[in-house]
Amino acid sequence: MKVDIKVPPLGESVSEAMVSRIITPNGTIVSQDQEILELETDKVNQVLYAPASGMIQLSVNQEQTVSVGDVIGYVDSSVAKQVVSEPVSVAPQPIKEEKQPEPQAQQPGARKNVEEFVKEIKQPKQQLAPSLQPVVKQESSIQSNGMKRKKMSGLRKTIAQRLVEVKNTTAMLTTFNEVDMSAIMHIRAKEKDDFQVKHNVKLGFMSFFVKAAAAALKAFPEVNAFIEGDDIVYFSSCDIGVAVSTDKGLFVPVVKNCENLSFSGVEKEIERFAKKAKEGSIAIDDMRGGGFTITNGGVFGSLLSTPILNPPQSTILGMHSIVKRAVVVHDEIVIRPMMYLALSYDHRIIDGKEAVQFLVHIKESLEDPSRLLLDL
Amino acid sequence: MEESFDVVIIGAGPAGYVAAIRCAQLGLKTACIEKRMEHGGTCLNVGCIPSKTLLYSSELYHTVHSQGSSLGIVTPSLSFDFQQMMKRKRDVISSLNEGIKGLFKKNKITHFIGSASFLSSESIQIFQGPTTTIVRAKKFIIATGSEPTPLPFLPFDERKVLSSTGALSLDEVPKSLIVVGAGVIGVELGSVYARLGSHVVFLEFLDKICPMFDGSISKSFQDILQKQGMQFHLSSKVVGAEVSDKSVIVKAQKNSDASLFSLEAEAILVSIGRRPYTEGLGLDKIGVLTNAKGQIPVDSMFRTSCSNVYAIGDVIDGPMLAHKASEEGTCVAEVIAGHTPSLDYIAIPNVVYTHPELASVGLTEEEAKSLDFSVTTGSYFFKSNSRGKCAQQEEGFVKIIVDTTSDIVLGIHILGAHASEMITLAVSIIHNRMKCEDLSSLCFPHPTLSEAIKEAALSVHKKAIHK
Fold first, then answer.
1. What structural domains and CATH numbers belong to chain B?
2. Partners of residue B344 in chain A, C-beta under 8 Å
3. What is the pLDDT of residues B355-366, one digit of tens each?
4. In this complex, is the C-beta atom of B345 within 8 Å of any C-beta atom belonging to chain A?
5. Which positions in chain A touch B373 (Cβ < 8 Å)?
6. Are residues B300 and A82, on separate chains, in Cβ contact within 8 Å?
7. Model-level pTM?
8. In angstroms, rounded to a whole number, what is the distance separating the alpha carbons of residues A235 and A257?
9. Min distance A246 CA to chain B CA atoms (Å)
10. Domains of chain A and CATH, by start
11. For residue B117, what are the β-bridge partners?
12. Parallel, antiparallel, or unpaired for β B3-10 and B131-142?
């Protein structure tokens, strides 16, 4: 029996996807729910699983664009049946039934045949090598002369489009402040081992920032809101997007209900998302619905920057590198680990005063985390 | 108590022994079962290695014999010692046998001597004389190789009716030899005996020799071998044979007009191909069926229809080549260990070790055209190559097939001395999908035979310097 392989719904407003990777080439015998191919959409990469066990036959090629609902091949389940039934009928195999799916079943095929070679040369792929691009005679020297041309991925195109759109449609500006990180560093130094032992996750900076942001969002509900048409829509919970940078681009998974999460709860969520982003298995649902975003340019060494809003959100907080600076405390010059904070906001719904006070609220929670404890 | 392994490999030829070593390197508890007393399979014991040993000796003799005077080498009474050639062949084999034995020991691979037969998909029985051992394994790799195909009416006796095995262990050089099948094995062994004085006549069913090679190469190759004294009857079919103590008389029929003719010689070598060897393996016990060609079907991960049993080498599809089998051995071991290896079949070279040698990789011009490529070719003759002149090796040429649209090299074919060594450069070009322009911009040492590759690449774009 042939079971169709269909492009599943890929989330809101996504109607097309590109076949970014074929994991099991035609002729591979797969078991049900085995990964067969990967689709790249504007937003994420999504893996497709075999709908049944059997021999796979795909009618699409790598890099081909497909629409939601398209039939892109089938699994011939009669092939699998032969494979399973024959040996069982002949030989006594008591443990056969309990066998786990083979680990290597998820790998791409190891045998690259002549058909694949022909396909590769007739439909050159960008990722392979610059020299694989069709050459127009005489122009090739210009191309090989240091200039390289590469097609934008769907993800990159969306990023580009969105960034320009935000600049054009919002009244975005940025307010700055600085934080003395001494208190947080002190707490981390003192408690990080106990924290790790008890919660099995590292105590990072991010949980402090997420909790401080959640407290500030509660204090300034206008910040946790966005414009839709002529209305202002308020979020009921503190869902905070945390930007994760990978080689495939920037992903912003959302840590939901931060106001109710403990420090370890926040750290665990972030760790889970970072792992998924690196593996490329992050799903659209993971990135949907945030009301606020935190981005950390500090990990790359940024001293100060003005982040761009993540629509439809109205605010974004930028963290930066921690640098020891001479600061004045109680009329004395002392050395303190300092970080600049930047809050970009949509001035259409947030007034300057609120934005500044919101950022000061975050600053105060960070400089004295006991304020978080007391819900101040 | 039956011994239990992660992987058991059946066959210690170039597929099996390499798979065993790689499995062991990857931390798998590995055993290898081999029917022969020695490791290395057909390749090392009765194939590639002994034939190359005899080809080397006979070539040196033949070169001095036919070109000595022009090269300034004077040998008043040149002769050869066939027994010594055979002894050297045996010495080479046993030294390499020892080498593999050492590698097995070093990698802690358990070695069983005997023939194997599956009991189930998790256990296998090994027969050695009267003793039977049963071992269990999570995974099996079938690497049992192939055997020479006889003519249906003419079984091998290895005295008068020779397979490649017999032709590699003769006691003396036959005065005349009929070779049925002018493929790789036929022309190599035919060359050995022709150089040592046999009158060698080929009977080939197809209209060209070494049919897997590019048409123009195959044609020139035949001309060269004819000049060396070998005779060819192409488009002819063997219909009958009479074997007596003294001679073999073969009846053949021309494909064109069905006219009959007969040939007589001291011995006949039947080299019409090899067939996968799976006899006695008990494949029915694990539900694995062979196809019409006798091959074991495998998926893109070398898995047979029994999911924990893999197969590699001559028993599966693809060219019957030792290096293809070895690459599959490495590949399957890595698949089993959960890695993601990739084997690029188009970049597997094919070599004939005659003189001159013939080596190729990628598509032939005929294949490229049949795959709808728009093709540009370039060639260069060793006659114009300075090193070829120096070494009196002016026969043959290099031919490059290029996809006109992308400029990617689709195939490289070399007929010439040391083609087997030069082809590795071509393998790298095909494997890396290099453009012809990139190839022609590489710097080659001068003077070398390999410069012919550069000139052939240049001539694709009509830019050859020495042409």
1. 3-46+85-147+275-343 (3.50.50.60), 161-272 (3.50.50.60), 347-460 (3.30.390.30)
2. 112, 117
3. 999 999 999 999
4. yes
5. 118, 121-122
6. no
7. 0.62
8. 11
9. 22
10. 2-111 (2.40.50.100), 156-373 (3.30.559.10)
11. B125
12. parallel
